[in-house]
Amino acid sequence: MINLLIISRTLERASKLSSELAKSGLACAVVPDLESAVEKLGERAMDLVLLYGMGSGSEIGRLSQTIRQRWCLPIIVLLPRDAIPALDSIPSIDDFVVAPGDPIEVSLRVKRILRNATALEEHEVIQSGDLVIDTAKCEVSVGGSVVPLTFKEYELLRLLASHKGRVLTRQVLLSKLWGDQYYGGDRTVDVHIRRLRSKIEDQQNTFIVTVRNVGYKFKPAG
Questions:
Q1: Choices 1.10.10.10, 1.20.1260.10, 3.40.630.10, 3.40.50.620: CATH for 122-218
Q2: Distance in angstroms (rounded) separating the CA atoms of residues 186 and 10
Q3: What is the C-alpha separation between 28 and 208, in angstroms, rounded?
Q4: Contacts for 97 with CB less than 8 Å, ≥ 6 apart
Q5: Do 169 and 179 meet the contact criterion of CB atoms below 8 Å apart?
Q6: Spatial distance between the Cα atoms of 171 and 177, rounded to a whole number of angstroms
Q7: Biggest alpha carbon distance in the chain?
Q8: pLDDT tens digits, residue range 153-198?
Q9: Is the pLDDT of residue 124 over 70?
Q10: Domain boundaries, the chain
Q11: For the chain, how big is the Rg over CA atoms in Å?
């Protein structure tokens, strides 16, 4: 049985969708906000989160990042067609469905994401020397000790490590992690890289290499 958590301001519509999804083998719980979601996730293990009618792109971004950081669950957003462009700047969203949402389509997308996650299970650990990135747990450890990272630090490291040896420019990193509409500038990337290095590197370990005037790359072990 797949356990799906639906977070929605439109509880009546979400409950109706929940009833339809139950016919496809999805056990759904519907809550109105993040506070209720935290309580529900403390009571019951969930496989995936569906955000339904949650308002602006910035709100969806904040909510999805919180969910990803705390529980590392896949996320699907159900939203109006004219709101779709906003998702381009939200890297923590796995998929979307155009509202009001066909229950059959929602069910298929949920099952596809979970099936792909299972198929990729053997590739969920990225390792380089003493550094281990467990993408299933959203957890990073160095020398066997877990390193507490912020969501952005974790996403930055995971992105670089997924492209070992390849230089990623500051603009690419900024676009992928903060979105094309972010106006903080390249300095934002440099600050996060510095903080990340202070947590995972020491005199014996160097994992991130600066390519002068270009960007950064992840240094493979050996």
A1: 1.10.10.10
A2: 39
A3: 42
A4: 76, 77, 78, 105, 106, 109
A5: no
A6: 10
A7: 57
A8: 888 998 898 888 888 888 888 877 776 555 566 788 899 999 999 9
A9: yes
A10: 2-119, 122-218
A11: 19
CATH superfamily of 2-119: Response regulator (3.40.50.2300)
Residue 23, classed as helix, strand or coil, is coil
pLDDT at 127 (0 to 100): 87
Q: How many CB atoms lie within 10 A of CB 203?
A: 5
DSSP string for residues in 118-150: HHTGGG-EEEETTEEEETTTTEEEETTEEE---
Per-residue model confidence (pLDDT) at position 117: 61
- 32 cis-preceded (ω within 30 degrees of 0): no
48 CA to centre of own chain? 12
User: Measured in whole angstroms, how far is the alpha carbon of residue 186 from the centre of its chain?
Assistant: 22
Q: How many CA atoms lie within 13 A of 56 on its CB side?
A: 3
Beta strands 125-128 and 95-98, pairing class: unpaired
